[in-house]
Design the sequence.
Protein backbone atom coordinates (compact mmCIF):
# COMPACT_ATOMS: atom_id res chain seq x y z
CA UNK A 1 0.00 0.00 0.00
CA UNK A 2 0.84 3.16 0.47
CA UNK A 3 3.19 1.46 2.80
CA UNK A 4 6.58 0.41 1.33
CA UNK A 5 6.74 3.30 -1.10
CA UNK A 6 6.99 5.72 1.75
CA UNK A 7 10.42 4.69 3.04
CA UNK A 8 11.96 7.63 1.23
CA UNK A 9 10.20 10.30 3.27
CA UNK A 10 13.12 11.85 5.06
CA UNK A 11 12.38 15.52 4.54
CA UNK A 12 11.09 17.33 7.57
CA UNK A 13 11.85 14.58 10.08
CA UNK A 14 12.50 15.73 13.62
CA UNK A 15 15.96 15.55 15.12
CA UNK A 16 14.98 12.66 17.33
CA UNK A 17 14.45 10.53 14.22
CA UNK A 18 17.76 11.38 12.61
CA UNK A 19 19.57 8.43 14.20
CA UNK A 20 16.98 5.96 12.92
CA UNK A 21 16.94 7.56 9.47
CA UNK A 22 20.71 7.34 9.22
CA UNK A 23 20.52 3.68 10.09
CA UNK A 24 17.94 2.95 7.42
CA UNK A 25 19.24 5.43 4.84
CA UNK A 26 20.52 2.59 2.62
CA UNK A 27 16.89 1.42 2.42
CA UNK A 28 15.66 4.75 1.16
CA UNK A 29 17.36 4.93 -2.23
CA UNK A 30 17.69 2.48 -4.77
CA UNK A 31 27.97 -2.05 -13.03
CA UNK A 32 26.41 -3.45 -15.76
CA UNK A 33 27.08 -3.60 -19.48
CA UNK A 34 25.27 -1.07 -21.67
CA UNK A 35 21.70 -1.95 -22.52
CA UNK A 36 20.86 -2.63 -26.14
CA UNK A 37 17.58 -1.01 -27.12
CA UNK A 38 15.45 -1.63 -30.14
CA UNK A 39 11.95 -0.69 -31.18
CA UNK A 40 9.95 -3.56 -32.65
CA UNK A 41 7.45 -3.08 -35.42
CA UNK A 42 5.37 -6.09 -34.36
CA UNK A 43 1.82 -5.37 -33.35
CA UNK A 44 1.16 -4.58 -29.68
CA UNK A 45 -2.17 -4.83 -27.83
CA UNK A 46 -4.62 -2.08 -28.70
CA UNK A 47 -4.36 -0.55 -25.22
CA UNK A 48 -0.66 0.24 -25.82
CA UNK A 49 0.14 3.64 -27.28
CA UNK A 50 3.52 4.46 -28.72
CA UNK A 51 6.54 2.21 -28.91
CA UNK A 52 7.27 -1.02 -27.12
CA UNK A 53 10.80 -0.69 -25.82
CA UNK A 54 12.76 -3.95 -25.95
CA UNK A 55 16.06 -4.25 -24.08
CA UNK A 56 18.53 -7.07 -23.52
CA UNK A 57 20.16 -7.74 -20.16
CA UNK A 58 23.15 -10.06 -20.15
CA UNK A 59 26.90 -10.15 -19.42
CA UNK A 60 27.09 -8.11 -16.23
CA UNK A 61 23.51 -6.97 -16.41
CA UNK A 62 20.47 -9.11 -15.67
CA UNK A 63 16.73 -9.02 -15.00
CA UNK A 64 16.66 -9.53 -11.24
CA UNK A 65 19.37 -7.19 -9.94
CA UNK A 66 20.67 -5.27 -12.98
CA UNK A 67 24.01 -6.97 -12.37
CA UNK A 68 24.32 -5.76 -8.77
CA UNK A 69 23.73 -9.10 -7.08
CA UNK A 70 22.61 -9.32 -3.47
CA UNK A 71 25.64 -7.48 -2.11
CA UNK A 72 25.26 -4.66 -4.61
CA UNK A 73 21.55 -4.31 -3.99
CA UNK A 74 22.21 -3.93 -0.27
CA UNK A 75 25.07 -1.48 -0.80
CA UNK A 76 25.37 2.19 -1.65
CA UNK A 77 23.16 3.64 -4.38
CA UNK A 78 24.28 2.51 -7.82
CA UNK A 79 26.43 5.27 -9.34
CA UNK A 80 25.37 7.73 -12.02
CA UNK A 81 28.34 8.99 -14.01
CA UNK A 82 26.75 12.33 -14.96
CA UNK A 83 24.03 13.10 -12.38
CA UNK A 84 22.32 15.69 -14.56
CA UNK A 85 22.10 13.27 -17.48
CA UNK A 86 21.68 9.71 -16.22
CA UNK A 87 21.45 7.05 -18.90
CA UNK A 88 18.43 4.75 -19.20
CA UNK A 89 20.62 1.85 -18.03
CA UNK A 90 21.76 3.77 -14.94
CA UNK A 91 18.19 4.74 -14.11
CA UNK A 92 16.98 1.18 -14.52
CA UNK A 93 19.69 -0.12 -12.21
CA UNK A 94 18.84 2.47 -9.56
CA UNK A 95 15.11 1.76 -9.91
CA UNK A 96 15.63 -1.95 -9.37
CA UNK A 97 17.91 -1.31 -6.41
CA UNK A 98 15.50 1.16 -4.81
CA UNK A 99 12.59 -1.25 -5.18
CA UNK A 100 14.53 -4.10 -3.57
CA UNK A 101 15.58 -1.89 -0.66
CA UNK A 102 12.07 -0.61 -0.14
CA UNK A 103 10.58 -4.09 0.12
CA UNK A 104 13.09 -6.64 1.43
CA UNK A 105 15.25 -6.80 4.54
CA UNK A 106 18.70 -6.96 2.98
CA UNK A 107 20.51 -6.15 6.24
CA UNK A 108 23.24 -8.39 7.69
CA UNK A 109 20.88 -9.86 10.30
CA UNK A 110 17.89 -10.34 8.03
CA UNK A 111 18.80 -13.65 6.42
CA UNK A 112 17.87 -12.79 2.85
CA UNK A 113 19.79 -15.06 0.48
CA UNK A 114 20.89 -17.22 3.40
CA UNK A 115 17.72 -18.31 5.22
CA UNK A 116 15.22 -17.58 2.46
CA UNK A 117 15.11 -15.99 -0.98
CA UNK A 118 18.03 -15.29 -3.27
CA UNK A 119 19.30 -13.08 -6.06
CA UNK A 120 20.77 -15.31 -8.79
CA UNK A 121 21.93 -13.92 -12.11
CA UNK A 122 18.98 -14.11 -14.52
CA UNK A 123 19.80 -12.90 -18.04
CA UNK A 124 17.00 -12.11 -20.43
CA UNK A 125 14.94 -9.47 -22.19
CA UNK A 126 12.51 -6.75 -21.15
CA UNK A 127 9.54 -5.28 -23.04
CA UNK A 128 8.09 -2.02 -21.70
CA UNK A 129 5.29 0.28 -22.87
CA UNK A 130 2.64 2.77 -21.83
CA UNK A 131 -0.84 1.24 -21.54
CA UNK A 132 -4.15 3.05 -21.25
CA UNK A 133 -7.40 2.29 -19.48
CA UNK A 134 -10.37 3.64 -21.48
CA UNK A 135 -11.04 7.32 -20.70
CA UNK A 136 -7.91 7.61 -18.53
CA UNK A 137 -6.01 10.90 -18.45
CA UNK A 138 -2.64 9.24 -17.89
CA UNK A 139 -1.14 5.87 -18.80
CA UNK A 140 0.21 3.16 -16.59
CA UNK A 141 3.43 1.35 -17.36
CA UNK A 142 3.52 -2.31 -18.27
CA UNK A 143 6.71 -4.37 -18.37
CA UNK A 144 7.47 -7.99 -19.20
CA UNK A 145 10.70 -9.67 -18.10
CA UNK A 146 11.49 -12.81 -20.11
CA UNK A 147 14.37 -14.88 -18.72
CA UNK A 148 16.62 -16.73 -21.13
CA UNK A 149 15.75 -19.87 -19.17
CA UNK A 150 12.02 -19.42 -19.83
CA UNK A 151 10.52 -22.89 -19.44
CA UNK A 152 8.65 -23.54 -22.66
CA UNK A 153 7.49 -26.94 -21.45
CA UNK A 154 5.78 -25.43 -18.39
CA UNK A 155 4.68 -22.04 -19.64
CA UNK A 156 4.39 -19.71 -16.66
CA UNK A 157 3.57 -16.00 -16.47
CA UNK A 158 3.61 -14.22 -13.12
CA UNK A 159 1.69 -10.93 -13.13
CA UNK A 160 2.08 -8.33 -10.42
CA UNK A 161 1.63 -4.67 -9.48
CA UNK A 162 3.97 -2.36 -7.62
CA UNK A 163 3.74 -2.05 -3.87
CA UNK A 164 2.78 1.28 -2.36
CA UNK A 165 2.96 3.95 -5.05
CA UNK A 166 6.27 2.74 -6.43
CA UNK A 167 7.34 2.52 -10.02
CA UNK A 168 7.34 -0.37 -12.44
CA UNK A 169 9.89 -2.52 -10.54
CA UNK A 170 8.03 -2.08 -7.26
CA UNK A 171 7.24 -5.79 -6.85
CA UNK A 172 10.51 -7.26 -8.10
CA UNK A 173 11.53 -8.60 -4.68
CA UNK A 174 8.35 -10.67 -4.56
CA UNK A 175 7.25 -11.59 -8.07
CA UNK A 176 10.60 -11.31 -9.83
CA UNK A 177 12.61 -13.03 -7.11
CA UNK A 178 10.18 -15.94 -7.01
CA UNK A 179 9.26 -16.28 -10.68
CA UNK A 180 12.34 -15.48 -12.77
CA UNK A 181 14.74 -18.11 -11.36
CA UNK A 182 12.21 -20.89 -11.98
CA UNK A 183 11.78 -19.97 -15.63
CA UNK A 184 8.62 -17.88 -15.44
CA UNK A 185 8.18 -14.64 -17.34
CA UNK A 186 7.06 -11.80 -15.06
CA UNK A 187 4.65 -9.01 -16.10
CA UNK A 188 4.54 -5.83 -14.03
CA UNK A 189 2.40 -2.71 -13.87
CA UNK A 190 3.00 0.47 -11.87
CA UNK A 191 -0.85 0.70 -11.69
CA UNK A 192 -0.92 4.44 -12.43
CA UNK A 193 1.53 5.47 -9.71
CA UNK A 194 5.38 5.76 -9.68
CA UNK A 195 8.02 8.47 -9.42
CA UNK A 196 7.29 9.90 -12.85
CA UNK A 197 6.86 13.35 -11.36
CA UNK A 198 6.24 16.40 -13.56
CA UNK A 199 8.15 19.57 -12.69
CA UNK A 200 5.85 22.42 -13.68
CA UNK A 201 8.59 25.01 -13.39
CA UNK A 202 10.85 23.04 -15.74
CA UNK A 203 7.91 21.82 -17.87
CA UNK A 204 9.40 18.33 -17.90
CA UNK A 205 8.23 14.81 -17.18
CA UNK A 206 9.43 11.24 -17.67
CA UNK A 207 9.74 9.44 -21.00
CA UNK A 208 9.39 5.70 -21.54
CA UNK A 209 13.10 5.05 -20.91
CA UNK A 210 13.01 6.89 -17.54
CA UNK A 211 14.88 9.99 -18.68
CA UNK A 212 13.49 13.51 -18.42
CA UNK A 213 11.84 15.12 -21.43
CA UNK A 214 10.07 18.43 -22.05
CA UNK A 215 6.34 18.58 -22.60
CA UNK A 216 5.60 18.04 -26.27
CA UNK A 217 8.95 16.48 -27.12
CA UNK A 218 8.01 12.86 -26.32
CA UNK A 219 5.20 10.73 -24.94
CA UNK A 220 5.40 11.19 -21.17
CA UNK A 221 4.40 8.98 -18.29
CA UNK A 222 2.40 11.82 -16.77
CA UNK A 223 1.60 15.25 -18.17
CA UNK A 224 -0.75 17.48 -16.17
CA UNK A 225 -2.83 20.18 -17.77
CA UNK A 226 -0.57 23.07 -18.76
CA UNK A 227 -0.66 25.86 -16.22
CA UNK A 228 2.05 28.49 -16.48
CA UNK A 229 1.01 30.03 -13.15
CA UNK A 230 1.92 26.95 -11.13
CA UNK A 231 5.54 26.13 -10.39
CA UNK A 232 5.30 23.15 -8.06
CA UNK A 233 5.60 19.42 -8.64
CA UNK A 234 2.79 17.25 -9.99
CA UNK A 235 2.60 13.60 -8.92
CA UNK A 236 0.78 11.03 -11.05
CA UNK A 237 -0.91 9.13 -8.22
CA UNK A 238 -2.28 12.30 -6.65
CA UNK A 239 -2.86 14.51 -9.68
CA UNK A 240 -3.64 12.43 -12.76
CA UNK A 241 -7.38 12.99 -12.39
CA UNK A 242 -8.00 9.26 -12.75
CA UNK A 243 -8.33 7.97 -9.15
CA UNK A 244 -5.94 5.16 -10.19
CA UNK A 245 -6.79 2.95 -7.20
CA UNK A 246 -10.24 2.36 -8.65
CA UNK A 247 -8.61 0.89 -11.77
CA UNK A 248 -5.78 -1.14 -10.23
CA UNK A 249 -7.49 -4.40 -11.16
CA UNK A 250 -7.81 -3.30 -14.78
CA UNK A 251 -4.16 -2.31 -14.81
CA UNK A 252 -3.19 -5.81 -13.66
CA UNK A 253 -5.37 -7.49 -16.27
CA UNK A 254 -3.82 -5.34 -18.98
CA UNK A 255 -0.36 -6.28 -17.71
CA UNK A 256 -1.28 -9.96 -18.02
CA UNK A 257 -2.50 -9.48 -21.58
CA UNK A 258 0.59 -7.43 -22.42
CA UNK A 259 2.71 -10.26 -21.03
CA UNK A 260 1.04 -12.83 -23.28
CA UNK A 261 1.44 -10.58 -26.33
CA UNK A 262 5.12 -9.99 -25.62
CA UNK A 263 5.71 -13.72 -25.16
CA UNK A 264 4.34 -14.08 -28.68
CA UNK A 265 6.95 -11.54 -29.75
CA UNK A 266 9.76 -13.22 -27.80
CA UNK A 267 8.96 -16.73 -29.05
CA UNK A 268 7.11 -16.41 -32.35
CA UNK A 269 7.65 -20.07 -33.12
CA UNK A 270 5.77 -20.95 -29.92
CA UNK A 271 2.89 -18.47 -30.39
CA UNK A 272 0.18 -17.96 -29.48
CA UNK A 273 0.55 -17.69 -25.73
CA UNK A 274 -2.88 -17.79 -24.08
CA UNK A 275 -4.38 -18.40 -20.68
CA UNK A 276 -5.25 -21.88 -21.90
CA UNK A 277 -1.63 -22.90 -22.58
CA UNK A 278 0.23 -20.56 -20.20
CA UNK A 279 -0.46 -20.57 -16.47
CA UNK A 280 -0.86 -17.05 -15.10
CA UNK A 281 -0.10 -16.57 -11.40
CA UNK A 282 -1.05 -13.21 -9.88
CA UNK A 283 0.80 -11.96 -6.81
CA UNK A 284 1.37 -8.64 -5.13
CA UNK A 285 2.17 -6.97 -1.86
CA UNK A 286 0.53 -4.05 -0.01
CA UNK A 287 -1.19 -1.90 -2.65
CA UNK A 288 0.02 -4.48 -5.17
CA UNK A 289 -1.76 -7.16 -3.15
CA UNK A 290 -4.95 -5.12 -3.26
CA UNK A 291 -4.47 -4.65 -7.02
CA UNK A 292 -4.29 -8.39 -7.76
CA UNK A 293 -7.38 -9.00 -5.62
CA UNK A 294 -9.20 -6.29 -7.57
CA UNK A 295 -8.07 -8.01 -10.77
CA UNK A 296 -9.25 -11.41 -9.52
CA UNK A 297 -12.74 -9.98 -9.04
CA UNK A 298 -12.74 -8.66 -12.61
CA UNK A 299 -11.21 -11.75 -14.23
CA UNK A 300 -14.24 -12.77 -16.27
CA UNK A 301 -11.98 -14.37 -18.90
CA UNK A 302 -10.41 -16.69 -16.31
CA UNK A 303 -6.88 -15.56 -17.02
CA UNK A 304 -5.60 -16.42 -13.55
CA UNK A 305 -4.64 -19.91 -12.43
CA UNK A 306 -4.13 -18.72 -8.85
CA UNK A 307 -3.53 -15.66 -6.66
CA UNK A 308 -1.24 -15.00 -3.69
CA UNK A 309 -1.71 -11.58 -2.06
CA UNK A 310 0.51 -10.30 0.75
CA UNK A 311 -0.73 -7.69 3.25
CA UNK A 312 -3.28 -6.36 0.73
CA UNK A 313 -4.84 -2.92 0.82
CA UNK A 314 -8.30 -4.29 0.12
CA UNK A 315 -11.79 -3.12 0.94
CA UNK A 316 -15.00 -5.11 0.69
CA UNK A 317 -18.58 -3.79 0.77
CA UNK A 318 -19.87 -2.76 4.17
CA UNK A 319 -17.07 -4.43 6.14
CA UNK A 320 -13.74 -3.37 7.58
CA UNK A 321 -12.61 0.23 7.27
CA UNK A 322 -11.35 2.11 4.25
CA UNK A 323 -7.70 3.15 4.32
CA UNK A 324 -8.60 6.83 4.23
CA UNK A 325 -10.98 6.37 7.17
CA UNK A 326 -8.59 4.70 9.58
CA UNK A 327 -5.50 6.56 8.34
CA UNK A 328 -7.04 9.99 8.95
CA UNK A 329 -8.22 8.76 12.35
CA UNK A 330 -4.74 7.45 13.16
CA UNK A 331 -3.12 10.67 12.00
CA UNK A 332 -5.00 12.58 14.70
CA UNK A 333 -5.12 10.11 17.58
CA UNK A 334 -2.10 7.81 17.40
CA UNK A 335 0.55 10.38 18.45
CA UNK A 336 -1.30 10.85 21.72
CA UNK A 337 -2.31 7.20 22.19
CA UNK A 338 1.31 6.08 21.83
CA UNK A 339 2.20 8.25 24.81
CA UNK A 340 0.37 5.71 26.96
CA UNK A 341 2.63 3.79 29.36
CA UNK A 342 1.80 0.45 27.70
CA UNK A 343 4.01 1.56 24.79
CA UNK A 344 7.06 2.52 26.89
CA UNK A 345 9.08 -0.40 25.48
CA UNK A 346 7.82 -0.04 21.91
CA UNK A 347 10.52 0.71 19.31
CA UNK A 348 10.29 4.25 17.92
CA UNK A 349 7.64 5.24 20.47
CA UNK A 350 10.11 6.96 22.78
CA UNK A 351 13.07 9.30 22.42
CA UNK A 352 16.58 7.83 22.78
CA UNK A 353 16.38 9.01 26.38
CA UNK A 354 13.23 6.96 26.94
CA UNK A 355 10.82 9.89 27.09
CA UNK A 356 7.52 10.51 25.33
CA UNK A 357 8.32 12.62 22.25
CA UNK A 358 7.41 16.26 22.97
CA UNK A 359 5.33 16.46 19.79
CA UNK A 360 3.19 13.55 20.96
CA UNK A 361 2.64 15.07 24.38
CA UNK A 362 1.67 18.28 22.60
CA UNK A 363 -0.86 16.37 20.52
CA UNK A 364 -2.50 15.15 23.73
CA UNK A 365 -2.63 18.76 24.93
CA UNK A 366 -4.19 19.94 21.67
CA UNK A 367 -6.84 17.20 21.80
CA UNK A 368 -7.69 18.40 25.30
CA UNK A 369 -7.88 22.01 24.10
CA UNK A 370 -10.41 20.91 21.47
CA UNK A 371 -12.37 18.97 24.12
CA UNK A 372 -11.70 15.65 22.38
CA UNK A 373 -10.20 14.20 25.57
CA UNK A 374 -11.04 15.24 29.10
CA UNK A 375 -7.96 14.28 31.10
CA UNK A 376 -5.80 17.07 32.49
CA UNK A 377 -2.50 15.16 32.33
CA UNK A 378 -0.78 13.46 29.42
CA UNK A 379 -1.18 10.01 30.97
CA UNK A 380 -4.96 10.35 31.22
CA UNK A 381 -5.23 11.97 27.79
CA UNK A 382 -3.15 9.21 26.21
CA UNK A 383 -5.32 6.54 27.83
CA UNK A 384 -8.43 8.14 26.35
CA UNK A 385 -6.83 8.40 22.90
CA UNK A 386 -5.89 4.74 23.17
CA UNK A 387 -9.46 3.75 24.02
CA UNK A 388 -10.74 5.80 21.08
CA UNK A 389 -8.59 3.76 18.68
CA UNK A 390 -9.44 0.46 20.36
CA UNK A 391 -13.13 1.25 19.91
CA UNK A 392 -12.42 1.78 16.21
CA UNK A 393 -10.91 -1.70 15.79
CA UNK A 394 -7.20 -1.06 16.40
CA UNK A 395 -5.37 -3.79 18.27
CA UNK A 396 -2.45 -3.24 20.64
CA UNK A 397 -0.18 -5.06 18.17
CA UNK A 398 -1.14 -2.80 15.28
CA UNK A 399 -0.80 0.37 17.37
CA UNK A 400 2.62 -0.64 18.68
CA UNK A 401 3.98 -1.29 15.20
CA UNK A 402 2.32 1.89 13.92
CA UNK A 403 4.73 3.84 16.11
CA UNK A 404 7.10 3.63 13.14
CA UNK A 405 4.49 4.96 10.71
CA UNK A 406 3.63 7.75 13.15
CA UNK A 407 7.24 8.68 13.89
CA UNK A 408 8.00 9.00 10.19
CA UNK A 409 4.93 11.19 9.57
CA UNK A 410 3.58 8.75 7.00
CA UNK A 411 -0.09 9.18 7.89
CA UNK A 412 -0.06 12.81 6.77
CA UNK A 413 1.79 12.01 3.55
CA UNK A 414 -0.57 9.14 2.68
CA UNK A 415 -3.82 10.91 3.45
CA UNK A 416 -2.90 14.17 1.67
CA UNK A 417 -2.01 12.31 -1.53
CA UNK A 418 -4.96 9.92 -1.42
CA UNK A 419 -7.45 12.71 -0.77
CA UNK A 420 -6.23 14.46 -3.91
CA UNK A 421 -6.48 11.23 -5.92
CA UNK A 422 -9.96 10.34 -4.68
CA UNK A 423 -11.23 13.87 -5.40
CA UNK A 424 -9.40 13.99 -8.76
CA UNK A 425 -7.64 17.23 -7.90
CA UNK A 426 -4.67 18.80 -9.67
CA UNK A 427 -1.36 20.07 -8.28
CA UNK A 428 -2.75 23.55 -7.59
CA UNK A 429 -6.01 22.60 -5.84
CA UNK A 430 -5.19 19.71 -3.52
CA UNK A 431 -7.62 19.38 -0.60
CA UNK A 432 -6.91 21.22 2.65
CA UNK A 433 -4.32 23.51 1.04
CA UNK A 434 -1.63 20.86 0.52
CA UNK A 435 0.84 21.09 -2.36
CA UNK A 436 4.15 19.63 -3.52
CA UNK A 437 7.26 21.57 -4.43
CA UNK A 438 11.02 21.65 -4.26
CA UNK A 439 12.51 21.59 -0.79
CA UNK A 440 15.82 22.84 0.57
CA UNK A 441 18.21 21.33 3.07
CA UNK A 442 16.28 22.67 6.08
CA UNK A 443 12.83 21.73 4.82
CA UNK A 444 11.92 25.15 3.42
CA UNK A 445 10.53 25.62 -0.07
CA UNK A 446 13.26 25.91 -2.69
CA UNK A 447 13.91 25.32 -6.35
CA UNK A 448 14.00 21.66 -7.37
CA UNK A 449 17.51 20.22 -7.34
CA UNK A 450 18.26 19.32 -11.00
CA UNK A 451 20.28 16.21 -10.09
CA UNK A 452 17.51 14.85 -7.87
CA UNK A 453 14.94 15.64 -10.55
CA UNK A 454 16.96 13.74 -13.15
CA UNK A 455 16.69 10.51 -11.14
CA UNK A 456 13.15 10.88 -9.79
CA UNK A 457 11.86 8.01 -11.92
CA UNK A 458 14.39 5.64 -10.35
CA UNK A 459 14.58 6.89 -6.78
CA UNK A 460 11.28 8.55 -5.85
CA UNK A 461 8.63 6.65 -3.92
CA UNK A 462 5.57 7.88 -5.77
CA UNK A 463 4.29 9.93 -2.83
CA UNK A 464 6.31 12.89 -1.48
CA UNK A 465 8.01 14.03 0.65
CA UNK A 466 11.39 12.73 -0.40
CA UNK A 467 13.99 13.05 -3.15
CA UNK A 468 13.96 16.83 -3.06
CA UNK A 469 10.16 17.18 -3.10
CA UNK A 470 8.39 18.50 -0.02
CA UNK A 471 4.79 18.35 1.19
CA UNK A 472 3.63 21.85 2.08
CA UNK A 473 0.40 23.30 3.41
CA UNK A 474 -2.09 22.03 5.94
CA UNK A 475 -0.10 23.55 8.81
CA UNK A 476 -0.18 26.53 11.14
CA UNK A 477 2.29 28.17 13.50
CA UNK A 478 1.00 26.50 16.66
CA UNK A 479 3.03 24.08 18.81
CA UNK A 480 1.29 21.25 16.87
CA UNK A 481 1.54 22.57 13.32
CA UNK A 482 0.33 19.48 11.42
CA UNK A 483 -2.90 19.03 13.37
CA UNK A 484 -5.01 21.49 11.30
CA UNK A 485 -4.29 19.57 8.12
CA UNK A 486 -5.05 16.26 9.83
CA UNK A 487 -8.38 17.56 11.13
CA UNK A 488 -9.25 18.99 7.71
CA UNK A 489 -8.57 15.65 6.00
CA UNK A 490 -10.62 13.82 8.61
CA UNK A 491 -13.50 16.23 8.03
CA UNK A 492 -13.52 15.31 4.34
CA UNK A 493 -14.46 11.79 5.41
CA UNK A 494 -16.92 12.69 8.15
CA UNK A 495 -18.70 15.63 6.50
CA UNK A 496 -21.98 15.13 4.67
CA UNK A 497 -21.60 18.31 2.65
CA UNK A 498 -21.95 17.90 -1.11
CA UNK A 499 -18.51 19.45 -1.64
CA UNK A 500 -16.86 16.46 0.07
CA UNK A 501 -18.96 13.77 -1.60
CA UNK A 502 -16.36 13.24 -4.39
CA UNK A 503 -13.94 11.89 -1.78
CA UNK A 504 -16.40 9.32 -0.47
CA UNK A 505 -17.35 8.42 -4.03
CA UNK A 506 -13.67 7.97 -4.86
CA UNK A 507 -13.18 5.63 -1.92
CA UNK A 508 -16.32 3.67 -2.77
CA UNK A 509 -15.00 3.11 -6.29
CA UNK A 510 -12.09 1.08 -4.87
CA UNK A 511 -14.32 -1.66 -3.40
CA UNK A 512 -13.43 -5.10 -4.78
CA UNK A 513 -15.64 -7.70 -6.40
CA UNK A 514 -15.53 -11.36 -5.43
CA UNK A 515 -13.45 -13.69 -7.63
CA UNK A 516 -14.83 -16.99 -8.89
CA UNK A 517 -15.15 -19.38 -5.92
CA UNK A 518 -12.98 -22.04 -7.57
CA UNK A 519 -9.93 -19.76 -7.95
CA UNK A 520 -7.03 -20.89 -5.72
CA UNK A 521 -6.41 -17.82 -3.57
CA UNK A 522 -4.14 -17.29 -0.58
CA UNK A 523 -3.87 -14.21 1.64
CA UNK A 524 -0.70 -13.76 3.72
CA UNK A 525 -0.69 -10.92 6.26
CA UNK A 526 1.37 -9.96 9.27
CA UNK A 527 -0.51 -10.03 12.57
CA UNK A 528 1.43 -6.92 13.67
CA UNK A 529 0.80 -4.85 10.53
CA UNK A 530 0.42 -1.26 11.72
CA UNK A 531 -0.13 0.34 8.31
CA UNK A 532 -2.79 -1.96 6.83
CA UNK A 533 -4.09 -3.71 9.95
CA UNK A 534 -5.62 -7.13 9.32
CA UNK A 535 -8.79 -6.13 11.16
CA UNK A 536 -9.58 -3.58 8.46
CA UNK A 537 -8.31 -5.40 5.36
CA UNK A 538 -7.56 -9.12 5.04
CA UNK A 539 -9.87 -10.42 7.76
CA UNK A 540 -13.03 -8.75 6.41
CA UNK A 541 -12.04 -9.84 2.89
CA UNK A 542 -11.52 -13.47 3.84
CA UNK A 543 -14.74 -13.56 5.87
CA UNK A 544 -16.64 -11.96 2.98
CA UNK A 545 -15.33 -14.50 0.47
CA UNK A 546 -16.19 -17.41 2.73
CA UNK A 547 -19.70 -16.06 3.27
CA UNK A 548 -20.09 -15.98 -0.53
CA UNK A 549 -18.95 -19.55 -1.15
CA UNK A 550 -15.24 -18.90 -1.61
CA UNK A 551 -12.46 -20.95 -0.04
CA UNK A 552 -9.46 -18.65 0.43
CA UNK A 553 -6.46 -19.74 2.44
CA UNK A 554 -5.34 -17.24 5.06
CA UNK A 555 -2.13 -16.93 7.01
CA UNK A 556 -2.10 -14.31 9.76
CA UNK A 557 1.59 -14.54 10.55
CA UNK A 558 2.56 -13.73 14.16
CA UNK A 559 5.32 -11.13 14.63
CA UNK A 560 5.25 -10.07 10.97
CA UNK A 561 4.49 -6.42 10.21
CA UNK A 562 4.17 -4.27 7.09
CA UNK A 563 7.70 -3.11 6.30
CA UNK A 564 10.27 -5.90 5.97
CA UNK A 565 12.80 -3.17 5.17
CA UNK A 566 12.25 -1.66 8.64
CA UNK A 567 13.67 -4.83 10.21
CA UNK A 568 17.14 -3.37 9.75
CA UNK A 569 16.33 -0.71 12.38
CA UNK A 570 18.02 -1.64 15.67
CA UNK A 571 15.46 -2.47 18.33
CA UNK A 572 12.75 -3.02 15.75
CA UNK A 573 13.88 -6.08 13.83
CA UNK A 574 14.55 -8.00 17.04
CA UNK A 575 10.81 -8.10 17.76
CA UNK A 576 9.61 -9.26 14.35
CA UNK A 577 10.02 -11.70 11.47
CA UNK A 578 9.94 -10.89 7.75
CA UNK A 579 6.78 -11.54 5.73
CA UNK A 580 8.36 -12.27 2.34
CA UNK A 581 9.36 -15.89 3.13
CA UNK A 582 5.72 -16.74 3.82
CA UNK A 583 4.71 -15.22 0.51
CA UNK A 584 7.34 -17.32 -1.26
CA UNK A 585 6.08 -20.43 0.58
CA UNK A 586 2.49 -19.76 -0.50
CA UNK A 587 3.63 -19.31 -4.10
CA UNK A 588 5.59 -22.56 -3.86
CA UNK A 589 2.42 -24.36 -2.75
CA UNK A 590 0.46 -22.82 -5.61
CA UNK A 591 3.19 -23.96 -8.04
CA UNK A 592 2.97 -27.51 -6.69
CA UNK A 593 -0.77 -27.44 -7.24
CA UNK A 594 -0.54 -26.12 -10.80
CA UNK A 595 2.45 -28.07 -12.10
CA UNK A 596 2.83 -31.11 -9.84
CA UNK A 597 -0.84 -31.92 -9.33
CA UNK A 598 -0.76 -31.40 -5.57
CA UNK A 599 -4.32 -30.97 -4.26
CA UNK A 600 -5.25 -27.44 -3.28
CA UNK A 601 -5.73 -27.70 0.49
CA UNK A 602 -8.86 -26.66 2.31
CA UNK A 603 -6.69 -25.28 5.11
CA UNK A 604 -2.99 -24.84 5.81
CA UNK A 605 -1.93 -24.37 9.45
CA UNK A 606 -0.55 -20.92 10.11
CA UNK A 607 3.16 -20.93 11.01
CA UNK A 608 4.14 -20.12 14.59
CA UNK A 609 7.35 -18.10 14.26
CA UNK A 610 9.33 -16.50 17.05
CA UNK A 611 10.88 -13.03 16.86
CA UNK A 612 14.30 -12.79 15.28
CA UNK A 613 16.03 -11.54 18.40
CA UNK A 614 19.41 -9.78 18.41
CA UNK A 615 21.22 -12.50 16.44
CA UNK A 616 21.05 -13.13 12.68
CA UNK A 617 17.77 -14.65 11.57
CA UNK A 618 17.69 -18.45 11.92
CA UNK A 619 15.38 -20.54 9.77
CA UNK A 620 13.81 -22.33 12.71
CA UNK A 621 12.39 -18.99 13.90
CA UNK A 622 10.24 -18.75 10.79
CA UNK A 623 8.54 -22.13 11.30
CA UNK A 624 8.14 -22.49 7.55
CA UNK A 625 6.41 -25.61 6.21
CA UNK A 626 8.50 -28.28 4.50
CA UNK A 627 9.39 -27.51 0.90
CA UNK A 628 6.49 -28.19 -1.45
CA UNK A 629 8.62 -28.03 -4.56
CA UNK A 630 12.22 -28.59 -5.49
CA UNK A 631 12.24 -25.89 -8.16
CA UNK A 632 15.32 -23.68 -7.85
CA UNK A 633 15.19 -20.18 -6.48
Sequence:
Amino acid sequence: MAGRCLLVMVVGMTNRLSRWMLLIAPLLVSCAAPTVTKESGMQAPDFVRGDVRETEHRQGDDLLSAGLGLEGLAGAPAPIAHPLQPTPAELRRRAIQASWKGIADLGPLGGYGRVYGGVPDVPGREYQAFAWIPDAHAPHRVLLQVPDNFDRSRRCLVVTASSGSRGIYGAIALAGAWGLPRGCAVAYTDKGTSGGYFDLADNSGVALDGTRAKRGSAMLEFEPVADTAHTGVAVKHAHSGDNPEADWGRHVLQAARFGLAMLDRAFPDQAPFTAQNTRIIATGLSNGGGAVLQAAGLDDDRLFAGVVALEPNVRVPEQGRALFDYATDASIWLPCALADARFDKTPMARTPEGEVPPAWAQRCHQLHERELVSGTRVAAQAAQAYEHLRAGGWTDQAMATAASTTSLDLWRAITAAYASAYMRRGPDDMPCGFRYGGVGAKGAAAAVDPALRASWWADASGIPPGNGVGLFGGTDHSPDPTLPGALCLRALWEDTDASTQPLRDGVAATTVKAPRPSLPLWIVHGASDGLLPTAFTSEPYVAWLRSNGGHPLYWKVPYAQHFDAFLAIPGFGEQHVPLLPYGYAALDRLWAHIYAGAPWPAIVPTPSPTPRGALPLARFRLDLPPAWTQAPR
